[in-house]
């Protein structure tokens, strides 16, 4: 019969083998995320260059409207919408992957002991896919809203002149949102370690939930990006750093408040410029 020491040694060996397999699969996940991030950044840079070549439409009030929101160069509305959604997905992959990866690693730690390596990979894909669906639906809504506003601004000059002032107000509200309890709750949900079954349905629901929580947590920063310029690479980089920092820093709530203070300060400058121009 197997003695206690032998059984303990076998159990220890199995535990070490499982731990080594988990570490190996985590390295694969990090590598895949890094490749997707690099590809999405390259695609975003290429799209930004093409949009810069197309130029923008000067508007009353001293601002310019991006051609993202309108069919130009013979494009149909369907093609314009498809181009925007494709750009949105690529851009969100570049901006959200750095903060999503720790969430995926927490999920894998939570369910990894109850799933084989192959099944764990499938569950991770389901979580990521559901997360992407949430952001894709949000992109469709953003395009519908942005295209509608662009049409109104082209029709009513008074509305167009008010855009710089409205942008400053949006940035102020986004900064204030960073101090709210609602923001703190959404941030806590994004950082929490999951406790759920290791099955496909649970993985899909978890992906949808973290997608919704992430979209809510990023609502203020996303609004700043939309009103200040989606094709501004410096702003995109700043929002990416801010989003990642408040997710991975030890005290994310404090980082969020610091970001809010910066946003309010920038909004003050935007409001002064808008009022001076008016």
Element-level helix/strand string: HEEHHHHHHHHH
Mean pLDDT: 85
Rounded radius of gyration (Å):
23 Å
Strand order of the largest sheet: 1-2
Query: What count of structural domains?
Result: 1
Number of strands: 2
Instruction: Characterize the biggest β-sheet.
Output: 2 strands, antiparallel
> Could you name the ranges where pLDDT drops below 50 across 5 or more consecutive residues?
5-17
Structural class: mainly alpha
Helical residue percent band: over 70%
Strand content: under 5%
Distance between the termini: 90 Å
Identify the overall geometry.
Answer: globular
Number of H- or I-type helical stretches: 10
Condensed summary:
The protein is 81% helix and 3% strand. The protein is an all-alpha fold and 278 residues long. Helix 1 (4-54) runs antiparallel to helix 2, helix 5 (163-177) runs antiparallel to helix 8 (219-228) and helix 6 runs antiparallel to helix 7.
């Amino acid at each position: 019969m197997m003695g206690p020491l032998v059984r303990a040694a076998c159990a220890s060996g199995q535990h070490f083998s499982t731990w080594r397999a988990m570490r190996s699969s985590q390295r694969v996940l990090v590598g895949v995320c890094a490749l997707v991030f690099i590809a999405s950044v390259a695609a975003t840079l290429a799209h930004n260059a093409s949009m810069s070549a197309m130029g923008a439409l000067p508007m009353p009030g001293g601002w310019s409207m991006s051609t993202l929101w309108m069919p130009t160069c013979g494009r149909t509305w369907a093609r314009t919408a498809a181009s925007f959604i494709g750009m949105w997905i690529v851009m969100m992959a570049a901006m959200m992957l750095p903060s999503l990866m720790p969430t995926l690693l927490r999920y894998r730690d939570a369910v990894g002991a109850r799933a084989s390596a192959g099944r764990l990979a499938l569950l991770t894909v389901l979580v990521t896919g559901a997360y992407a669906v949430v952001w894709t639906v949000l992109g469709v809504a953003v395009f519908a809203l942005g295209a509608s506003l662009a049409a109104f601004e082209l029709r009513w000059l008074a509305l167009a002149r008010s855009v710089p002032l409205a942008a400053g107000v949006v940035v102020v509200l986004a900064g204030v949102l960073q101090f709210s309890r609602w923001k703190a709750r959404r941030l806590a949900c994004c950082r929490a370690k999951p406790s759920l079954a290791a099955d496909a349905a649970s993985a899909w629901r978890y992906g949808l939930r973290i997608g919704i929580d992430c979209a809510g947590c990023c609502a203020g920063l996303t609004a700043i990006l939309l009103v200040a310029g989606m094709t501004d690479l410096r702003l995109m980089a700043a929002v990416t750093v801010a989003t990642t920092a408040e997710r991975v820093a030890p005290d994310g709530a404090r980082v969020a408040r610091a970001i809010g203070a910066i946003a309010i300060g920038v909004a003050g400058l935007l409001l002064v410029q808008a009022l001076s121009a008016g």
